[in-house]
Each structure stands twice: as structure tokens, then as C-alpha cells.
Amino acid sequence: EKGGFDSFMEKEIHDQPQAVADTLLGRADASGRLELDELRIDPQELKDISKIVVLACGTSAYAAHVAKYAIEHWCRIPVDVELSHEFRYRDPIVGPDTLVVTISQSGETMDTLMALRYAKEQGARTLAICNTNGSSIPRESDAVLYTHAGPEIAVASTKAFLAQITATYLLGLYLAQLRGKLFQGEIKDILADMADIPAKIQDILERKDEVISLAHAMKDTTSVLFLGRHVGFPVAMEGALKLKELAYIHAEGFAAGELKHGPIALIDEGQPVFVVVPSPRGRHSMHSKVVSNIQEVRARGARTMVIAEEGDTAVGEFAEWVFRVPETKTLLMPLLSVVPLQIFACALAGAKGLNVDQPRNLAKSVTVE
Ligand code: M6R
């Protein structure tokens, strides 16, 4: 049942190429026209919405953060991302012109279910992105887009996260298509790049030993920081969450630009810092700013572990360790850059002799508020 792996988590990390491929399967025709028939929501209603609010918790909320960058860029619709348990208690502004998207692997997270019910009471249109057929959240939503990651057993979410990002991107492209914000050819190109992602994840998995040796060497570490910018920011937060929940190590993810506003004071000799570097082929200023951030922490004694694109020659000089991810579009990078961070947390927890599938104090689905 663990497919020859020592833990469900390792198996699920290795299921990720399939999870992304299956979530993409059958959603578009040969010309790249998306047909999300299963949505059960009138396309006209989707055309008329003026804002999107995405509600989720934990890892699913980081998928929502990633989605915001893509959906706003492609559709020019404002997207707010909020933790489900914060949303309900602050008198949020939602109404019939709002599309409330919930993201949940289990479909049973009580915080998200209650937030969904609240949004419905306010008259919002609701859409669930969910991995569990027939669970409460999709059942109570107007529309549903299933992720096809297959059952996720390990408490720490991995393949569901990648499938969630994939599904939110399909939604974003579908809305862009409905609202005429992207040309059909552009949508087709993005879908073609997404279709290449599974093979690129496979390439990363084949080089997992590079990450596992680092994790073993770092097994006595007590604190790790993660930095990212743009879509790399939620990836940094997800890398930190994986390490907290699996290896019980204090970890924090920051927006790299926030460093000088406080967190840089944490850096002293030997502090490990992971940096998720955007593509040098994307927005040049963003890449060079992150490279400067690596320099800044390195100059203050940090140990710098860098996730960078193949062929990015700028990072080598300031990095103690570099893991290369294959080239892809900036917006698709999270689907690759998070994978070494998942492997790192899993391997470090394993090296400490911890139960990676069932970390202490946690449940797979949080069905209480
Ligand atoms: O089932 P859900 O996606 O609604 O669960 C949300 C969170 O509880 C979940 O992602 C949690 O943070 C995981 N333990 C993360 O690995």
C-alpha cells in the first residue's frame, strides 16, 4: 500500500507527477479550449462576478496564495485570500457579485465549512476545489472542481497541494477564457507548459538524494528560515510548515522583501536559510533582488540553501548548496520548487526517527473549529 516506500508521505511525494497529470486530464480540447462542465455553475454567472475570495487553511491556504498571483494576472479580477477561521469573524464584504472559492483536500475541514456557510448566507456564489468526492464542502457548494490527487493518507499534505495549484490555474484560465482576457493561443501555451510539469517533477524526484543528504547533515538543526518572493513566497511558507509539522523544528517563511523590515535581525552565524529563487528569464528585477537577499543573509553568516532554475549562474557564488529545478514559466515554478522542500522535511524527520505520516498533535482532517 505504501508502494515500496517507507512512509505514505514518501509515496505521496512520488505520486505528484501523476496527481498533476490527472488533475489536468480531460479539461481542454485540442485547441486549448477549457471545458469545465463539472462546475455546475452557469458561465454567465461566472462572467458577472467582480471579485474572488479564496478561503482555506494550512497548506491549502498556501495553494490559495499561489493562485492569487495567477488568477489576478490572467483574469484581472481582484482575488482576496483569507484563512477560513479569520474570515467569518470579521464581517467580510461578500455578496452576489463575489465568487467564494474554498480549497480543501479533505472537504471536511470545519473552519472552511463554516466559512463557506457564512459566505452562502451573504449571497455569494461558491465553488469548492476539493480532493474528496462527495465530502461536505463540495456538497454544500454551488460548484465544484475536483483535484485528482488520489487519496492522501499522510497528515502532511503534499500531492494535494500540487493538485490544488493545478486546479486553481485551470479555474483562472477558464475565467480568462470566459471573460476574453487571454487569447485562446495563450491559454493553449500555458496548458502545454502545465502538461510538461509532471515530467519535470519526475526529474526532481530522480535527484532526491541531493536533498536527502542535506537533510541528514542538518538533523540537529533547531531553526530554519525560508525566503521567497512573488509565487516563491507561499512556497517558502509551505516549506516552513512542512518542517514544523514533520520535524518539530522552528521554521518561518518570509517574503524576501520583508527581510530588512525585521527578520534579518534573526540572522547570525550558521543560521540556515532556504531561498526560493525566481527564474532569471522572468522579470529581471525580481530575480536580481532575490539574489541580493541571498548575499545579504550570507554576509551576516547565514548558511544559504538555494532552490534555483537550471542555468541560473547568478546564485552559485553565494550559495552553500544549490538545488536545480527545470525551467518553466514563473507562475508554474511553485509546482517544482516546493518538491525539494517537501523531500527535505520528510527526510529530516526520518533522520530524527520521527513518524512522518502521523506527526504528534495533528489530525489529517480537522473537523472541529
Ligand atoms: O483538508 P484541508 O485541505 O482542508 O486541510 C487543511 C489543513 O488542515 C492542512 O492543509 C494542514 O495544514 C496539513 N497538515 C498541512 O500539511
UniProtKB/TrEMBL annotation:
GO terms for biological process: amino sugar biosynthetic process; carbohydrate metabolic process; fructose 6-phosphate metabolic process; protein N-linked glycosylation; UDP-N-acetylglucosamine metabolic process. Its EC number is 2.6.1.16. One of its GO terms (cellular component) is cytosol. One of its GO terms (molecular function) is carbohydrate derivative binding. The active site is at K364. It comes from the Bacteria. Keywords: Aminotransferase, Cytoplasm, Glutamine amidotransferase, Repeat, Transferase. It catalyses: D-fructose 6-phosphate + L-glutamine = D-glucosamine 6-phosphate + L-glutamate. Residues 42-181, 214-359 form the SIS domain. It is found in: Cytoplasm. Catalyzes the first step in hexosamine metabolism, converting fructose-6P into glucosamine-6P using glutamine as a nitrogen source. Homodimer. This is Glutamine--fructose-6-phosphate aminotransferase [isomerizing]. It comes from Galactobacter valiniphilus. The chain holds residues 255 to 623 of 623 of the full protein.
